Amino acid sequence: MIEPHPLVAMIHAVPAAHRTAEEAFAREFPQATVWNVLDDRLLDDARGAGGLTGALRRRMLRLIGHVMDGGARALLLTCSSYGEVVDTARALWDVPVLKSDEAMFKAALAGPYRRIAVVASTPPAVPAAVAQLEALVPVVRPDRPLDIVTALSEEAAAADDADAAARHLADALHAADGAEVDAVLLAQYSLSPAREALAGLLGVPVLDGAGAAARELRVLLTPDGPPVPAAAVAS
């Protein structure tokens, strides 16, 4: 049975991701009823531990269990650093559970890009995003090579505005020999406001995950609705 206003839960590690994802759903999937859950220690604790620990994985699974018990018809985990927990959640709950950037990665891999940059402002986000991207390569583009460049700018996280964040990310990308990439992927929702400015500085497409995730859940939860055009997914 298709629900007219399906309850979509989102678990966030930073307030900025909450705002970005909610704006994306208002634009791309306004029929959804959005439920935001924020634990603003998730990212700091992962950073302090040097990555995910067993305790942090269990903590995220408890948060996921909380929204599932509350009737969520789908879940979006907006923190890329916790993406690996999604695999466990999918085995435990029979509703769509999305990693933060899966839809964006699929769109990028389906596109014409040969050299793709992954940029972030927090260290755990880089290996998590690259691992997801590499895992999708054999599925989405097994016969086409892909070169991945990574760049980290922790200064971007403390930037006063989107333009300043974009400049920090561009500087980090140039320092990482990423000047000749075909596209840039933002590894965190909190960086989405810098997308347009970064694209202007680099002269290449810059993709973010929030809108792509909203479009994918719209298709999954309202299968009688219009299909998502490939161009829209990659925007």
* Count of beta strands: 8
Give me the Rg, rounded.
17 Å
Uncertain residue ranges: 226-235
Q: State the separation between the terminal residues, measured CA to CA.
A: 31 Å
Tell me about the largest β-sheet.
4 strands, parallel
| Helix share, percent | 40-55%
CATH C-level label of the largest domain: Alpha Beta
Strand and helix order: EHEHHEHEHEHEHHEHEHH
The secondary-structure class comes to: alpha/beta
Averaged pLDDT, please?
90
State the helix count. 11
The name of the CATH topology of the largest domain is Rossmann fold
Description:
- The structure is a single chain.
- This protein is of the alpha/beta class.
- It folds into two domains: 7-100 and 211-233, Rossmann fold (3-Layer(aba) Sandwich); 102-208, Rossmann fold (3-Layer(aba) Sandwich).
- The protein is 49% helix and 15% strand.
- The chain has helices at 15-28, 42-49, 54-69, 84-92, 102-110, 125-140, 154-157, 162-175, 195-202, 209-221, 230-233; strands at residues 7-12, 33-38, 74-77, 97-98, 115-120, 147-152, 183-186, 206-207.
- The strands form two sheets. The protein has a four-stranded parallel β-sheet with strand order 2-1-3-4, sandwiched between helices. Strands 6-5-7-8 form a four-stranded parallel β-sheet, sandwiched between helices.
- Strand 7, helix 9 and strand 8 form a beta-alpha-beta unit.
- Helix 1 (15-28) crosses helix 10 (209-221), helix 5 packs across helix 6 (125-140) and helix 5 packs across helix 10.
- The longest helix is centred in the N-terminal third of the chain and has 16 residues, at 54-69.
- The radius of gyration is 17 Å and the shape is globular.
- It starts with 6 loop residues before the first strand and ends with a helix.
- Residues 226-235 have low confidence and may be disordered.
